[in-house]
């Protein structure tokens, strides 16, 4: 049972693509850093999209949880209610069908318990209200902190606790990446191109579909995908044509230099240069979306693991 509920729209999507497995997080290297000295700077996309009052709240609330970057709060705020601008039931008053309310979509019982453990600083309502943006954002920071975000231990898992769905975590992380200004030599992910981001967004929409050998997806009459069918379809949705097989996609390149930061949308390959047997699409934060094998749905996985045969990555160009 979810501790927090999303909007009616989010709940409807979850019925279609909810992936029931908890996924451990490895995102501290990218999104860690809640203190003002190490926090990321807003990108032009963030400045254009986030209302000024909300941007200030996200940036002030995040440092209350060491290891939490403000972009994670902003990503949640965007996905949940478009930073309080949504007119759906429960955003400004009342509750949606799942009982959630306010700009960060808290259940009242969850909000009350979080506030009891993490007192809200002055500046909001008295008593604190889940409908008050100040109170809701600080409460969200507290909830994420106790769910794994403190010191960057498990930010992926913390977001998963907010809404138990891999697709949701992926959307939040990708939104956060768009809000985070790229920094040279930061050691984190590189900035995706618009088409690469479109490919990632398409792949997110396929989470939960079955693995089908030779499958090209529902748009081509198949119930699901195999690994290279998924990556090909993702880039076709972004207006780019890729070869069909994993080996051909690897050969097409261009290769990302060894040691260089990956960007969301990069293709990650496994095997040897002459015998590639698997491909996934990198989504940032050490994660990929892939169609793994028979009996396993399209899902989010770590792109590196102990004993893997990772062969490198490519960055498709139009």
Describe this structure in words.
The protein has 318 residues and is α+β, with helices and mostly antiparallel strands. It has two domains: 8-179, Lysozyme; 194-314, endopeptidase domain like (from Nostoc punctiforme) (endopeptidase fold (from Nostoc punctiforme), Alpha-Beta Complex). It has helices at 8-17, 28-31, 44-49, 52-61, 70-81, 108-117, 133-149, 155-162, 166-179, 194-204, 227-237, 246-252; strands spanning 100-101, 106-107, 267-272, 275-284, 287-290, 299-302, 310-314. Strands 6-5-4-3-7 form a five-stranded antiparallel beta sheet. A hairpin with an 8-residue loop joins strand 5 and strand 6. Helix 4 crosses helix 5 (70-81) and helix 4 packs parallel to helix 7. The longest helix is centred in the middle third of the chain and has 17 residues, at 133-149. The termini are far apart. The relative contact order is 0.14.
């Amino acid at each position: 049972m979810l501790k927090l509920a999303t909007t009616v729209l989010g709940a409807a999507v979850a019925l279609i693509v909810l992936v029931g497995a908890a996924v451990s997080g490895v995102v501290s290297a990218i999104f860690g850093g809640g203190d003002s000295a190490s926090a990321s700077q807003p990108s032009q996309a963030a400045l254009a999209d986030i209302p000024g009052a909300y941007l200030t709240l996200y940036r002030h609330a995040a440092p209350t949880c060491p290891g939490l970057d403000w972009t994670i709060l902003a990503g949640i705020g965007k996905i949940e209610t478009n930073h309080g601008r949504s007119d759906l039931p429960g955003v400004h008053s009342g509750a949606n069908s799942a009982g959630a309310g306010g700009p960060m979509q808290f259940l009242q019982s969850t909000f009350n318990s979080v506030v009891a453990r993490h007192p809200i600083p002055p500046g909001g309502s008295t008593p604190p209200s889940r409908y008050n943006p100040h109170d809701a954002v600080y409460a969200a920071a507290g909830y994420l902190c106790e769910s794994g975000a403190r010191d960057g231990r498990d930010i992926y898992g913390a977001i998963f606790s907010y809404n138990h769905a891999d697709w949701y975590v992926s959307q939040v992380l990708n939104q956060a990446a768009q809000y985070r200004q790229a920094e040279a030599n930061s050691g984190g992910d590189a900035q995706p191109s618009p088409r690469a981001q479109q490919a990632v967004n398409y792949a997110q929409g396929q989470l939960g579909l079955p693995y089908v050998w030779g499958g090209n997806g529902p748009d081509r009459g198949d119930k699901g995908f195999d690994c290279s069918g998924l990556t090909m379809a993702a880039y076709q949705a972004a207006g780019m044509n890729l070869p069909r097989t994993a080996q051909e996609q690897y050969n097409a390149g261009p290769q990302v230099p060894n040691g260089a930061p990956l960007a969301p949308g990069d293709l990650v390959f496994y095997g040897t240069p002459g015998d590639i047997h698997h491909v996934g699409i990198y989504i940032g934060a050490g994660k990929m979306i892939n169609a793994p094998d028979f009996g396993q749905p399209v899902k989010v996985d770590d792109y590196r693991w102990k004993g893997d045969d990772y062969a490198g990555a490519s960055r498709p160009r139009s």
